[in-house]
Specification:
This protein is mainly β and about 110 residues long. About 10% of the residues lie in helices and about 40% in strands. Strand 3 and strand 4 form a beta hairpin.
């Protein structure tokens, strides 16, 4: 994988900015990010990781769609995405993000 396009979902964006009946708005010192973990040949061992911030210090890091360069994932055959935050306890924010335009670079076997 060379890159993907990412966006906040309306649901995550609104809850992080405004809160709802279950969750307070994201505090100024809190962040929400996506962690991508890459695996090879069915192994359970993580071979590569990369992180992309959706919100940093209580504020969105971008508007609309943006490109996430994933060059560290070039030699993996499976990627698992996880949404995390730096608050305490479980993540009370919707664990959703939008993903599109996955750019895959084919590497010939050596």
């Amino acid at each position: 994988i060379e890159s993907i396009m990412v966006a906040n979902t309306t649901y995550l964006y609104n809850v992080a900015k405004n809160g709802n009946h279950l969750t307070a708005p994201l505090a100024e010192n809190e962040s929400i990010w996506i962690e991508a973990k890459g695996y090879v040949n069915g192994s359970d061992e993580v071979q590569a990781t990369t992180t992309f911030y959706l919100f940093k210090d209580g504020k969105p890091t971008f508007e609309g769609w943006t490109k996430w360069y994933m060059t560290s994932m070039c030699k993996v055959d499976k990627i698992v995405f996880e949404i995390a935050w730096d608050g305490k306890d479980y993540n009370p924010y919707p664990a959703y993000f939008a993903l599109d335009d996955i750019k895959v670079v084919r590497q010939e076997p050596t």
